[in-house]
Amino acid sequence: MHTVDQALEAITLNVAPGPVETVPLCEALGRVLAEPIDSDIDSPPFDKALMDGFAVRAEDIADGTATLTVIDEVTAGQVASQAIQPGQAIQIMTGAPIPDGADAVVQVEDTSIENHEQQVRVSIDTRPVVPGRNMIHQGTSMRRGDTVMPAGRQLRPQELGLLAELGRQTLVVHRQVTVGVLATGDELVTIDCQPGAGQIRNSNEAMLAAQVRACGGLALELGIARDNPEDLSARIADGLKCDVLLLSGGVSAGRLDLVPAQLEAAGVNEIFHKVKVKPGKPVWFGTSPDSVVFGLPGNPVSSMVCFELFVRTALRRLAGLSPAQPAAAAARLARDFEFRGDRPTYFPGRLEHHSDGPRVTPVDWHGSSDLRSTANANAMIHFPAGDQGYRAQQWVEVFEWSGRA
Amino acid sequence: MHTVDQALEAITLNVAPGPVETVPLCEALGRVLAEPIDSDIDSPPFDKALMDGFAVRAEDIADGTATLTVIDEVTAGQVASQAIQPGQAIQIMTGAPIPDGADAVVQVEDTSIENHEQQVRVSIDTRPVVPGRNMIHQGTSMRRGDTVMPAGRQLRPQELGLLAELGRQTLVVHRQVTVGVLATGDELVTIDCQPGAGQIRNSNEAMLAAQVRACGGLALELGIARDNPEDLSARIADGLKCDVLLLSGGVSAGRLDLVPAQLEAAGVNEIFHKVKVKPGKPVWFGTSPDSVVFGLPGNPVSSMVCFELFVRTALRRLAGLSPAQPAAAAARLARDFEFRGDRPTYFPGRLEHHSDGPRVTPVDWHGSSDLRSTANANAMIHFPAGDQGYRAQQWVEVFEWSGRA
Questions:
Q1: Digit-coded pLDDT (tens) for A73-95
Q2: Would you say the ipTM is above 0.90?
Q3: Does domain B48-136 bear CATH number 2.170.190.11?
Q4: pLDDT at site B116
Q5: List of chain B residues whose C-beta atoms are within 8 Å of the C-beta of residue A96
Q6: Which residues in chain B have their CB less than 8 angstroms from residue A164's CB?
Q7: For A22-41+147-174, which CATH superfamily applies?
Q8: Beta-carbon separation of B44 and A200 below 8 A
């Protein structure tokens, strides 16, 4: 039986980054670059004022006071018509280019204007002025030709702003993957039904589809497959048209756990079945030439945790993200906790942030069918195998879930 | 001039939760509930097997060994046709209801089947069996009538799974807000242009629109307004059709900073102008009967930081989220840092997670026009006003940006 690390390694080895496409900038949020980005400009593109005030020669105001002749005004988007000579200033707005001859800006709050014999003069009273004050030099932030983003970068608002500054109207990114979600089991009814004796509503479809969407994938809800080979094989054939197929249920040791056999019959090659993990031990993973397939356990918390550990890794890999594997963080336990278990366990926890760092509380959890507990949680705490008493304040490994509650 | 806390307080006071609508479950990811959710079922709805194996009477196997007569089989979705008597067992699948008379499940791995004179018998060899083993009792996770989610809860995958379990096909949630983004300034050119002397491309529109989308809002890109009252007032009138209008630029002390006056002329009531914060001091906030309006500074990092602090608070408030104000976390500084500044500063930083907790590194930052530095960051570090030498390992307040880089 694979360990979690071996399973993650197997996924990373067997799933390759997906195909690319070109999208407009305004649709690229959350997508992953498939090309490195070089700058076509210096930024700022010119020496630039950072304040409204007066462009000056610092040496004219070395002691902080001066009265200068105002020879021009330059606003953002314009260029001054003449250079500054000793004893002169040009009124300037934030964002405007620094005129030739000037090497500093005195902010307007430190000045007063005097009209003097048809000349405008500015009286300055401030701390000693040094070159570079209230301005930024051309190319300080980036130089033309610099590589400002590597391929593999996920695009957040600031990347999109930067790409707009570089004039990138379109970008080559990894294509969004389509993910089919197929719940299996004779006990399932659709959510519009009142469950009869022994029945439960299909909660996994809505949950897994949302997990897919939260990862940036395109979820297709494929309904419920019944525990017979005919129905299951037909729906699997349909699901294999997706880049990724997620099944839930039917992967344990029971007589009606038909998923692994039907997947292999459909040409999906098993990479692993069962992982030493709780919840989620029966998880199945395989690939076909065109699809990546997970058989997730039917209990909803098992399904959710296996998604966070394994499916997310595959989706990140397909999306071109590296590292693809789950990002561990750490938090102090908020209370003593007696852990019992012979498998590494991912336990629902409530992560909170305090001025002395993060703290996590294991929530009241009744096992793999108890979805309610996960709605009270925002992270999973990793407890290694083996009974152990953990102490409050002890650091433990946590994996934060996306979103807040 | 407002402090950051006063500004956040003013936003919270002047922005009320927005209207509600009913949406289908499959479109509710990220939306905020406007109704509390009560359970219409017990969960699990019946005493349920957690393993494939045999439903038994624990007292028959108190020492861990027994040979029992198998009288029936029950799979998930079915109900056993008869009750278990002493000496009997019923084969059971994960998820199936526990038959009457049984109070534990022995997993199939601990059993062997014997066919014995037309009777099927199961031989069990395991550790002593206590009632409740490998099963979960009806209502353990939740009881019919329990309130399982309060109004104001943001819907993540696990909430959607739980709502599906409760049969909720539709939900009452807060409506998505429309947010107009209007950049202002004569220096701006559209991103398909090669900037001329003194010009820069409009990076704020793409960035702010993406920040809106990352918050769950509907962004409308309204183009560039020029620094004259006619163009600005026409575009403001258009933008006030949105629930929220964001302008960037034109809010400083300069002669062409027309935004505050044009907003007031359009009937937007100023709540505050200028906040003691860096970057972002000139930020303007006001309301009209139908809109919430922010005048953000034109420099992109100022604009971005003011969005994260102030606009996000307004959007969270409109969405019905509480608390609406930014969620502070803490991290240890990864290196010594000399801070100089007379305003509280939100400094781009790179937050990383280690086994002994989070660490943050201030990135190389060249001020409010240096968007590139924010692409190297994933958080902002809050340094209070006042020159101070911070030491490596010291805890500082951080605000994580959404998404990863």
A1: 999 889 999 999 999 999 999 88
A2: yes
A3: yes
A4: 78
A5: 187, 198
A6: 191, 201-203, 205-207
A7: Molybdopterin biosynthesis moea protein, domain 2 (3.90.105.10)
A8: yes
CB contact under 8 A, B154 and A404: yes
Percent of residues, chain A, with pLDDT higher than 90? 93
A174: nearest Cα among A206, A115, A218? A218
Q: Which CATH superfamily is domain B24-41+147-172 in?
A: Molybdopterin biosynthesis moea protein, domain 2 (3.90.105.10)
The structural domains of chain B, with segments of one domain joined by +, span 4-18+176-318, 24-41+147-172, 48-136, 329-400
* Alpha-carbon gap, residue B64 to B107, rounded angstroms: 12
> Amino acid letter at B359?
R
Whether B254 and A195 lie within 8 Å, measured CB to CB: no
Q: What is the pTM of this model?
A: 0.95
Domain A329-400 has CATH 3.30.470.20: no
CA distance B298 to B201: 12
| Tokens coding B395 | 């805890």
Other C-beta atoms within 10 Å of B193: how many? 12
Q: Is the pLDDT of residue B405 over 60?
A: no
The alpha carbon of residue A302 is apart from the nearest alpha carbon of chain B, in Å, by: 12
| Measured distance CA(A240)–CA(A255) in Å, rounded | 24
Condensed to tens digits (0 to 9), the pLDDT of residues B108-152 reads 999 999 987 788 999 999 999 999 999 999 999 999 999 999 999
Q: Domain B4-18+176-318 belongs to what topology?
A: Molybdenum Cofactor Biosythetic Enzyme; Chain A (3.40.980)
Task: Name the residue with higher pLDDT: B16 or B117.
Answer: B16
> Between B157-165 and A203-214, two packed helices, what is the crossing angle to 10 degrees?
160
Nearest Cβ partner for B304 among A158, A253, A370: A158
**Rounded Cα–Cα distance for residues B192 and A67 (Å):** 43
